[in-house]
Amino acid sequence: MSILVDRNTRLVVQGLTGREGMFHAAQMIEYGTNIVAGVTPGKGGQQVLGVPIFNTVAEARAATACNASIIYVPARFAPDAILEAADAGIELIVCITEGIPVLDMIAVRAHLERLPTRLIGPNCPGVITPGEAKVGIMPGRIHKPGPVGIVSRSGTLTYEAVAALSEMDIGQSTVVGIGGDPIIGSRFVDILALFQQDPATKAIVLIGEIGGNDEELAAEYIRWHVTKPVVAFIAGQTAPPGKRMGHAGAIISGGKGTAADKIKALEAVGVPVAHHPGEIAELIAQRL
Amino acid sequence: MKLHEYQAKRIFAQYGIPIPRGEVATSPTQARDIAQRLGKPVVIKAQVLVGGRGKAGGIRLARTPDEAEEKADAILGMNLKGFTVRRVLVDEASDIRKEIYLGLVIDRARARVVMMASAEGGVDIEEVAATKPEAIKTVVVEPALGLRSYQAIGLASAIGLPQEHFRLFQQIAQGLYEAFIRCDAELAEINPLVIQGDGTLLALDGKMVLDDNALFRHPDLEEMRDLDEEAPAETEARINGLSYVKLDGEIGCMVNGAGLAMATMDIVKHYGGAPANFLDIGGGARAEKVAAALRIILSDPNVKAVLFNIFGGITRCDEVARGILAALEQVPTRVPMVARLVGTNEEEGRAILAEAHMATARTLAEAAQKAVAAARGDWPLEVVR
Looking at residue B174, which CATH number applies to its domain? Predict the structure, then answer.
């Protein structure tokens, strides 16, 4: 078991014919992900990497029964790509694209709230269930199948935590990068709920950062709804207020969204917070 | 991207929001001429991108053109919280009876734009939020519907605004929403919005922060960027597509990924050092970009050691290593460096750096400890370049 993606995932890649899309599609195929279709308007009928290309997601869905989509299109076209996949009835959309205007994402979110589709991202590394399916841009080889579910706002910081766990021979059930933007499709609480229900997940790692209050909401959720052990790390303890730290969502504004507040909220509900990324694996090992 | 007060108010005026008559001056004599033309007492306001200008002495009343020149002379060139004042706004003074607050922000938890209003205007709204949260009233805007009249009037009524001002308040609230949406803002504030003796409303101060990710569709707004308010290193970083924030410490950091870059700064602090900067080279950075990043780090005279932390996924360690060598050829330095390169092509990367006599580390903790020691000067001489 796992969450979001597995052997039954039938993936459509939006933007497969682009430079990024093609590079990562090849990597996903190599990992064993079942890519059944690609979508690029105006390139329907071609075959790329042995995958049939369609003009629209709806056509790809009708022909291949794809049930998940990954989006690699540039920021100015990505909101449309998300809406197109959602309107075609795709159950899971993973949007890798960075730099989508925030007002565009507000409009997209408002539409998605009326549909059963789940969106992961944007501005995220994607989702991987080790040994089954990789729907993202993370280096597949650092992962190992196992009992730890990881949910994170960051990319490379997550790889760091995964590599440390794998080195201690502790595998992962599913690793979910929810993205570093202020408006994202799925937040910590959404993914925590899935990990809590997943029998294969025995412990959870939550990797947060400065900005917003998703970590505080996660702490409140853990307090009432999560019985599995949770370990956290929060990046940005030395970040100055009012400065955006790379991610659009990583900013302390009006004194809110500091690492100290988030650490306090998590520790208050019994979640140990690692002092540095290397400590995450040690804390998990003690709890398995 | 933050706009100056005068820029924000000019935008507000385009959306039907009344603002005081006024002009920008860069010299005391210009300020005098503007005051002369306005023919009324004026307020001289420093145009810098920081809050709390009034308390810091950057806003002063002048009754005559002579006084305007004198006050402008005092304000121009002054240092306000690290920013040098290069311009002042000379606005006609107004007859203030009451100050209210009106603002639009992005509510991340709700994923909506939210309008906030308060009868406690003219003060720091964050302070009101902390001490008297019940004084702030909000309405949530549905993107497809926009800010509706009933919502604006609901806010006016909730903050106890006298009824005779409802119509004008509604017009200003809807104008502010329109400006926010059309400019792709992430914050738009009128603080204070004042009720004058003659019963009219006026946006006395304005603040706008634009969404950097949306500037591609607003070339006209991009032109309003004030490069004087940006550290030169930050400008160079932006042009090179790097995310860089200067800090006060002595250990320069170059990292791929924003979260990992923050974690690297934190671990430097954890081991007793202080980070000189946040720097994310992004995913898949090529050698030229890495070289630009290192030049930017080394341009900071406080830097006593440099820490490279690269977790290669799409980013290739050999490419980063080549970039480091290229930069070192352009900018020779004696600053000690510690490299931790893991992931894609790490062996090739390490082999390239072996020629640079650079200290290496396997884990982030080890790298941070070595960098902190190097910055203190506790470093074996033979590995110093």
Answer: 3.30.470.20
Confirm whether B9 is domain-assigned.
no
Angle at the Cα of B257 (from B256 to B261), degrees rounded to 5?
85
Give the residue carrying structure tokens 């909000």.
B138
Q: Is B99 a catalytic residue?
A: no
Domain annotation covers residue B16: no
* Catalytic, out of B6, B15, B101, B244: B101
Same domain, B119 and B184: yes
Number of domains in chain B: 3
Are B111 and A233 in contact (CB < 8 Å)?
no
Q: Confirm or reject contact between A47 and chain B (CB < 8 A).
A: no
Of B142, B212, B217, the CB nearest to A110: B142
B122 and B206 fall within a common domain: yes
Where residue B377 sits, what CATH number does that domain have?
Answer: 3.40.50.261
Q: Structural domain of residue B78, as residue ranges?
A: 21-92
| CA–CA dist B115, B112 (Å, integer) | 10
CB pairs under 8 A between A and B: 174
The one-letter code for the residue type at B330 is Q
Paired residues of B113 in beta bridges:
B106, B141
List phi, psi (to 5°) of B194: -110, 150
B260 and A156: CB-CB below 8 Å?
A: yes
* Residues B275, B199 within the same domain: no
Report chain B residues whose CB lies below 8 A from the CB of A163: 311, 342
B66 touching A (Cβ < 8 Å): no
Q: What is the CATH number of the domain that holds B27?
A: 3.30.1490.20
Q: Are residues B171 and B303 in the same domain?
A: no
Domain boundary among B189, B222, B255: B222
In sequence order, what are the residues at sequence separation of 6 or more whose Cβ sits closer than 8 angstroms to the Cβ of residue B112? Answer: A106, A110, B106, B140, B141, B142, B143
Q: Are B268 and B371 in contact (CB under 8 A)?
A: yes
Interface membership of A197 toward B (CB under 8 Å):
no
Contact B111 A110 (CB under 8 A): yes
Residues B130 and B171 in one domain: yes
Among B197, B222, B247, the domain boundary falls at: B222
Mutate one of A77, A95, A102, A244 to test the B interface: name it (highest B CB count within 10 A): A102
**Residue B122 to residue B98: CA distance in whole angstroms:** 9
Tens-digit pLDDT string for chain A (288 aa): 799 999 999 999 999 999 889 999 999 999 999 999 999 999 999 999 999 999 999 999 999 999 999 999 999 999 999 999 999 999 999 999 999 999 999 999 999 999 999 999 999 999 999 999 999 999 999 999 999 999 999 999 999 999 999 999 999 999 999 999 999 999 999 999 999 999 999 999 999 999 999 999 999 999 999 999 999 999 999 999 989 999 989 998 878 899 999 999 999 999 999 999 999 999 999 998
> Which residues of chain B does A137 touch, with a Cβ-Cβ cutoff of 8 Å?
283, 313-314
